[in-house]
Structure formats: structure tokens, C-alpha cells
Amino acid sequence: MLSDSDANIRRRQARRPRRTNGDGKVARPIPYDPLSLENLAHSVERALLDTDPVNITEVPETVGAGIYALYYTGDEPLYAPISNQECSTPIYVGKAVPQGGRKGLVDPTKDSYALWTRLQEHKESLEQAENLDVSDFRARYLVVVPFFVGLAEEIMIRKYQPVWNLKLDGFGNHDPGENRRGQGQRPAWDEVHPGRWWSQPERMPKPNKVSPETSRENIRDHLARLSAETPVELDMARALEDLDGMQSALDFDDAE
Predict the structure, then answer these.
(1) What sign does the CA torsion over 126, 131, 134, 136 have?
(2) Which terminal residue of the chain, N or C, has fewer Cβ atoms less than 10 Å from its own Cβ?
(3) Quick check: is 40 in a domain?
(4) How far apart are alpha carbons 228 and 202 in whole angstroms?
(5) pTM of the prediction?
(6) Where are the strands (E) in 5-99, listed by range?
(7) What domain range includes position 196?
(8) Are 100 and 161 spatial neighbours (Cβ–Cβ below 8 Å)?
(9) Is residue 13 part of a domain?
(10) Residues with Cβ < 8 Å from 121, sequence gap 6 or more?
């Protein structure tokens, strides 16, 4: 038998209107967790985008690991859909962690120049490319606690779909070494933008399985699709993606 107080509580609850989503069902939104891995990664992304882009030739020597985004501002027609001075759409997103970081072998007493070194490698690749001008490339970069580097890179690639990450492999490649050059194919990036000394046909005679013409067509299709989609459509599409594989982003890649 209910007490008078219990009965009064039940009556008040019965009179209270239920909040529904319009079809009679009670809405059960997922509580926002500011400390979830995804939201923490987005905070790193926002911090990166708050930085001013600088020409990739003018990045000062910098201590630390981190993430970066490269932007094209030139007049090459192939990249016209993303070329602008506002640096709104990255052509490439990458990360840099100290050598040995994947295995936890980093000496915390020694300075690491992983981020600056990686940007210098990209600068040299762009300088050597015969049909690109290094002065047309700008960079945003951010020194980040290593734990979040891979996670933030994953989030940004999913969100911005940079064409050199998704449709033209090989920009971030290193020289495979004299003994391996003759065995592997030239990177697709070097087929479209030849010039890097180690990928010259006399050093890497095997062409990529994807022809330069096909790569260019893939780039045009990709950028046309991005240009046709509104920011809202892109955000909605990416918001619906699950986070399968997100944990793998925490396995730092020394090469990147």
C-alpha cells in the first residue's frame, strides 16, 4: 500500500507531460562527452585551424611532434577547385612523431624535431617537382602531445578528404633505398608530379599501375564532388560515419 507521499509523487508524475520527438517516442540523445577521443581530436583540429598558414619554405625550426595541413594556392588548373588564399581546403594532411615513438622508445630528455623535419621533407619534394612551385604551398602546423597526433590526423582526413591523401598516393614517401628502387613501382604522385631524384625512371624503372592520366581524372572527379557538396552535406555525411578503426590511429607511424 502506497503512503500518502508516494501517492502524491505518482500523481504528479502522471500529470507531467512526456517529452517526445513527435512520433510518440521518448527521445534518448547520447550525452555529449567532451572527453571522448573523438571530441578531444576535434579540439586538436580546431587548435590547428586557429593558426595562421605560412609558406612551407618559411617554417622555422621547431621542437616537437604534431600534425599539419598543406594548402595549394597556385594556378595549376588540376587543383583549381581547392586553390585559394584563405587556405580553406587542405591538399594534404599529415602527422609527425619522434622516431621510435610507436614502440615507446623515445628519450624524453632529448629534443625531437619530428614535425619540422617532416615539413622540410615535403618542402624538398615540392622543390624537386617539375610542374609545381613550392612557393604556392602553405602549411598550418601544431605541436601536439604525441598520444593525440594519430587520432587528430584521422579526424582531419575523414573530414576534409585531402586529395593527396585519398586519390594520389606517394607524396609522403621516402626514398626506398638503392636496393629496393628497382623492385617497386614509382609512386603515383611522382608520375603526376615528376622530379624527385630517387623516383626518376632510371632509378625506379617500373611505372605505377595507375597511369598519370587516370590519376589526373581521379583527382578531377574527387575535387568536383567536394566542390558540389555543401558544407552541411559534408558534415552530415561525416557525422554518420562510425569510428571503426579509430583506435588504429593511435598506433603511431614513424614514417609519417
Answers:
(1) negative
(2) N
(3) yes
(4) 41
(5) 0.77
(6) 54-55, 66-72, 92-96
(7) 32-247
(8) no
(9) no
(10) 174
